[in-house]
Amino acid sequence: MKKRLRKISDSFEIPMGVISDYYMEIYSGNEIVLNGDAAVTELEDSVLKVKCGEHRIIFSGTGLKIEYYTSGGIKITGDFSGIEFG
Fold first, then answer.
1. Where residue 38 sits, what CATH number does that domain have?
2. How far apart are the C-alpha atoms of 73 and 33, rounded to whole Å?
3. How many domains is the chain built from?
4. Which residue, among 9, 27, 7, 10, has the nearest Cα to 18 in the 3D structure?
5. pLDDT value of position 19
6. Alpha-carbon distance 83 to 50, whole Å?
7. In-domain check, residue 57
């Protein structure tokens, strides 16, 4: 997988750290599915922090909850007010 990502990165001149083994799907503003290897590092009613490889994603909003959390991904629901990447 890393070799394929490196080829994509080289072809499009994208820094390697930007490409990862996960992707996010957002449905109707109140449901997010994060597919790939991810680890929840913090969960509160208004903040959910997830680590995906070298990246951290911070979801903020109200009533955030995890509908499912498997080795293949996470489904998060709630009223989202922001998503930060770090």
1. 2.60.40.2000
2. 7
3. 1
4. 9
5. 53
6. 11
7. yes
Encoded tokens for 42: 């913090």
- What are the pLDDT digits (tens) for 7-32? 544 555 545 555 567 888 888 879 99
| Residue 11: strand, helix, or coil | helix
pLDDT digits (tens, 9 = 90+) for 43-84: 988 999 999 878 899 999 999 999 999 888 899 999 999 999
Q: Which domain holds residue 39?
A: 21-85
In a domain, 42, yes or no: yes
* CA–CA separation, 71 and 76 (whole Å): 15
From residue 71, give the alpha-carbon distance in Å to each of 39, 48, 52, 55.
9, 17, 12, 17
Helix (H, G, I), strand (E, B) or coil at 38: coil
Q: How many CB atoms neighbour CB 21 within 10 A? A: 13
Residue 14 lies in a domain: no
Q: Say what the pLDDT of residue 53 is.
A: 79
